[in-house]
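I hope you will forgive my troubling you with a question about protein structure. You will find the record immediately after this paragraph.
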Amino acid sequence: MEVGMNKEEAYQLLENNVIDTIHEWQVKLGYTEEMIRIYYNRDSLEHLVKLSLPTILEAKEFLIAWRETVQDHLGKVHLSNNEERFCIGIPAEGTKYVHEQKKGSTFLLNLMEVLKEPTCSIEQILEVFKKRSPNVICEKAVDEEFDYVIYYENDVLDSFRYCFSLGEMGAFYHRFSEYDYQTVR
């Protein structure tokens, strides 16, 4: 039963999320042409793709069908699960595809450069976000782990919630989907 998307749109949402996640890892850790595994809980997957996937079997069937739609550019995607936790393994050819597709993407590279600075401030971080769009929301975080959460008003541009901690040991961030951010807090 669909919540608001047709399957093709849902497949695209998952593909975009997988590509964005791989790209972030490549920016943070460097590019290597090897398999990358991404994990999704069933409820997070369901929320991400905006389809009702109330059972493990329905989530598996969705992922198997999705795998067929991305095989020509991401390669032979490996799927597995442990109960409601699903693993999507993107092979080396898929990580190479992401690397080549995202070469011109500078947002995360610019963000990493700012975060490397020992005196990094929230104002400097916001400058990086505002280069993409002035429609940025910055809020004090409600939990003790992070100081700020930053995100864009327009989820089409970037749907993630970036949570930052600034301290004596430097600055770091963690990126969540909107749903995961709401459930983690």
Observations:
- Strands lie at 36-41, 78-82, 85-90, 136-140, 148-152, 161-167, 170-176.
